[in-house]
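Predict the 3D structure for this chain.
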Amino acid sequence: MLGLGEMGSAIAKTFVDRGYRTTVWNRTASKSAPLAEVGATVAATAAEAVAASPLVVVCLLDGPAVDAVLGSVDAAVAGKVLVNLTSGSPAQARTNESWARERGAEYVDGKIMGDPPYVGTPNIMFPFSGSPSAFKAHEPTLQVLGTIAYHGEDAGLAAVEFMGQVAVAYELLIGFLHTLKLVQAEGVDVAEFAERIAGSIGAFPPLLSSMGKAVKSGDFPPDLGSLDVQAALMDDMISHRESVGVEAVRMREVKKLMDRRIAEGHGDQGFSSLFALLAK
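Done. Predicted structure below.
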């Protein structure tokens, strides 16, 4: 295990707790002490840790940290399976896969969707992609970390899944905060409103599924109603926000997309048809 931040330490401890012979390394050596106390072997260098096991798990702060550590181990990875759980882009994953292959190692990219306390439980998800043979060989070991899924041989696919899932969460949550600002400006109890939203959000999964199918097929039904009708509603949404001093940039952006789509002759289509306008 290379990297013993909060997440790396949680992963290493899970391996130890599940009976795996685990060797750990961290640039700041003092972070190894708690793992040594529970039975992990502490390596003096990253290369020494790599040499100790056929499976090498990397969990560091960012891509540059990964580059630095991999540069220090270099040829030591030959014959190993390298599983990188560090956050990064699909392009970074593909670059890391090429680096590993050139040195005789197999590469699996993974991402972490959850917090350190949930490592070792089903409440944390790990998407993986990369070498199918390496993933299959070590799948039982990786399963002890949480809920895992394999997304394909292209090493970048786990990062695509991760960034997509996280992006949806951020988009939803910033929209939610904007809405809380709006209802608060009108004197509504935001905590009570949030409870009502939590109750109604269960209606979204079927809509999301249908929109995904519409985007894939290119056939856009009038989900949420036709754009002709929705555009009028957007005018109301924008004017309401501005009347109480709440930022309306996002709503204006949506309205511009609707107006463009309507002008192109697609006013009978639904919200999902805005997908056609989202290229640069």
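The chain has two domains: 6-160, 189-277.
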